[in-house]
Write a structure and sequence with these properties.
Number of strands: 0
Strand content: under 5%
Order of helices and strands: HHHHH
Shape: globular
Largest sheet: none
C-alpha cells in the first residue's frame, strides 16, 4: 500500500512540476488565464495518467521549433492526441513570444 501511495504522490508532483514549467514559460500577464485553460483541458482527461500524458505531449509540442511545430498538427491527428492539444500548444507558444 505504501508503494502505491508513493507512486501517486510522485505522479502528482511530476504533473505539478510539468504544469508549472509550461506556465512559467509564458508571459506573466498571460499565465493565470492560460493556466486555467490548461487545467480545463486536464479536467477532460479520464485519469491521472491521462493528465500526465497530456501535459507531456503539450510540453513536446511547446518545445518544437517553428516549422516542425506546424507539421506536428498532422502528426497530432494521427497519434493518440487530438487537434485540441495542438490548438492549446499554439496559443501557449504565442503567449511566449
Amino acid at each position: 500500500m505504501q508503494a502505491a501511495f508513493s507512486s501517486t504522490d510522485e505522479a502528482a508532483m511530476e504533473r505539478e512540476t510539468l504544469l508549472t514549467r509550461i506556465v512559467d514559460s509564458l508571459r506573466e500577464a498571460e499565465r493565470p488565464a492560460l493556466r486555467e485553460r490548461i487545467e480545463s483541458a486536464l479536467a477532460e482527461q479520464d485519469s491521472a495518467a491521462s493528465e500526465l500524458r497530456f501535459l507531456k505531449d503539450l510540453d513536446i509540442f511547446m518545445a518544437l521549433p517553428g516549422p516542425a511545430f506546424m507539421y506536428s498538427r498532422g502528426i497530432a491527428e494521427t497519434l493518440r492526441v487530438g487537434e485540441d492539444i495542438f490548438e492549446l500548444a499554439y496559443v501557449l507558444r504565442r503567449a511566449r513570444e
